[in-house]
Amino acid sequence: MVHMMSDAARRLVFEAARRADAMGVMRLDEAGGLDARAALRLVTRARDAGVARTPPVSWGNLDVPTDQEITELLRLVIAALEGSPVPKSEWPSLSGVFEADHLARLLGISLSSLRRYLSGSRETPDEVAERLHFLALVMADLAGSYNAIGIRRWFERPRTTLGGRAPSALLTGDWDPEGAGAQKVRHLARSLVALSAT
Questions:
Q1: Are 193 and 144 within 8 A, CB to CB?
Q2: Average pLDDT over residues 173-191
C-alpha cells in the first residue's frame, strides 16, 4: 500500500466516504483515515452493495497502487455511487435522519407506502428509489456542515437562492431528480461542500 497520498486523493476518499455513508453503504467512521486502506475499504463496500463492481483497476493485482491509480479508481467509485440507487441501504440511512412523515412528504409518497418499502414487504418502485437516492446524495452534501437536526431544518428553511422558497417546496408531488427544481436544491447543497473545502 502507498504510504503517502496527495491532498486530491485524500479529498476523493472523503467525498466517496460521505456518499457511501449517506447511502448506508458504509459508515463514515468505518473508513478510518484518509489513506489507501480507507480507499480500498470503500471500493470493497461499494462492490458488496452492487455498485462499481467492475472498475478497470483491481487492487487485488497491485502490491503498491500509485496515487494516480487510487485517484482514478475513487473517481469511478464516486461516479458509480452518484448514479446507483441502493434503496435497501438508503431507506434505513435516511430513516435515521428524517421522521417517517417528513421523509414520506419529501418523497411524495404515503406514509403506509414508506413503511412497506422500508420493511422490505414491498419493492421500491424505480421512481421512488431515484428520489430516495437523490435525497441521500443531498444529505451527503449537507453532512459536512450540519448534524441530523440541521439537515432536517435545512430542507424547511426558505433560501434566498431558491427565490425565498424552502428546498422542500421544490420537492413536491412526483418530482423528478433531474428536474430544474431538484437540481437547484442539489446545487445549493453542493455549494456548502465547496465552501467547506476552501
A1: yes
A2: 95
141-150 pLDDT, tens digit per residue, is 998 789 999 9
Count of positions (residues) in the chain: 198
> CB of 131 within 8 A of CB of 105?
no
Question: pLDDT digit string (tens) for 113-127?
Answer: 999 999 999 999 999
User: What is the four-CA torsion angle of 166, 196, 37, 59, rounded to 10 degrees?
Assistant: 70
The vertex-176 CA angle with 147 and 117, nearest 5°, equals 65
Total-model pTM: 0.87
DSSP labels, 66-114: -HHHHHHHHHHHHHHHHH---HHHHHHHHHTTS-HHHHHHHHT--HHHH
Name the DSSP letter for residue 120. Answer: T
- Rounded CA-CA distance 34/162 in Å is 34
